[in-house]
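RECORD TYPE: inverse folding
INPUT: structure tokens
STRUCTURE:
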């Protein structure tokens, strides 16, 4: 077998490990959440929170994956890492600002990519014990039950999450918020982009938009949305695994309107395909 070509059973083995490790990291994170004291965080930058549990969770996940698959690449939010043909992208806690302030809306997000194609993605919210999971071509589930995106077609009934960060100018975000509101949508923000995507996949939300996200925040969730019948943008064609890019994931019935409001194109096919290692920076501002 040529380098970089895994059999389905190799992917399945990794998916099984992912299920185990995401739940054990979730238990570790929940334990840290229960102990988190007021002000028990430091800042990596403006509105960018860090707790001890972020690093502990990433170390735990990295250790388990590297022990089982030492030749795989690992790219995590806290420790970075190497992007290889086979690579895991890991957010040890997404929604750290919520976590640090005692709000139980955070998760662990893990994706596995081979030659630029996401093979599976998992998002686990330990506070609700909810695991969203998708394997390429096999549909999406929440705690093992098949999920699908909402059937919404009207903006005056739509609820859309818009995430933002200091990485893109406020004026650009305000323009997108205004365009979505003008179409009649309710616009929300809950502070975990990964859970925002999971909620599109299971129909709790109609779309998630953010003008720049890092791959650990969105690659797993975008596969889960696509496998649940939603429409996504071609994330790594617009940006890259290393530097991130714009994110749009939507129920099919409103996807073109969301794309127009956010000025983010939709992917043509269903596959979440990427050209990794290009390192190209996204031009969305
Ligand atoms: C952030 C959250 C937030 C999103 C940001 C992310 P973090 O990740 O997902 O909702 O808007 O783009 O950086 O800092 O909680 O891991
Ligand atoms: Ca994150």
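DESIGNED SEQUENCE:
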């Amino acid at each position: 077998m040529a380098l970089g070509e895994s059999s389905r059973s190799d992917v399945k083995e990794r998916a099984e490990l992912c299920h185990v490790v995401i739940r054990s990291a979730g238990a570790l994170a929940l334990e840290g959440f229960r102990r988190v004291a007021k002000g028990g965080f430091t800042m990596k930058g403006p509105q960018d929170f860090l707790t001890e549990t972020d690093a502990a969770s990433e170390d735990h996940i990295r250790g388990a994956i590297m022990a089982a698959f030492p030749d795989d690449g690992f790219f995590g939010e806290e420790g970075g890492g190497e992007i290889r043909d086979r690579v895991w992208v890991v957010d040890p806690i997404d929604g750290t600002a919520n976590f640090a302030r005692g709000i139980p809306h955070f998760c662990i997000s893990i994706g596995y990519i081979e030659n630029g194609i996401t093979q599976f993605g998992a998002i686990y919210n330990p506070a609700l014990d909810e695991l969203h999971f998708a394997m390429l071509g096999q549909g999406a589930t929440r705690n093992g039950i098949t999920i699908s995106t909402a059937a919404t077609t009207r903006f005056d009934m739509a609820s859309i999450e818009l995430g933002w960060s200091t990485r893109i100018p406020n004026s650009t975000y305000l323009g997108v918020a205004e365009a979505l509101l003008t179409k009649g949508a309710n616009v929300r923000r809950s502070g975990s982009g990964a859970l925002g995507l999971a909620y599109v996949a299971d129909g709790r939300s109609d779309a998630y938009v953010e003008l720049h996200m890092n791959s650990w925040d969105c690659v797993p969730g975008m596969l889960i949305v696509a496998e649940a019948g939603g429409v996504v943008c071609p994330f790594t064609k617009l940006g890259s695994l290393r530097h991130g890019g714009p994110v749009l994931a939507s129920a099919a019935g409103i996807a073109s309107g969301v794309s127009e409001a956010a000025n983010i194109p939709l992917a043509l096919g269903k596959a979440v395909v990427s050209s990794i290692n290009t390192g190209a920076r996204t031009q969305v501002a």
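NOTES: The domain at 5-146 is CATH 3.30.540.10 (Fructose-1,6-Bisphosphatase; Chain A, domain 1).
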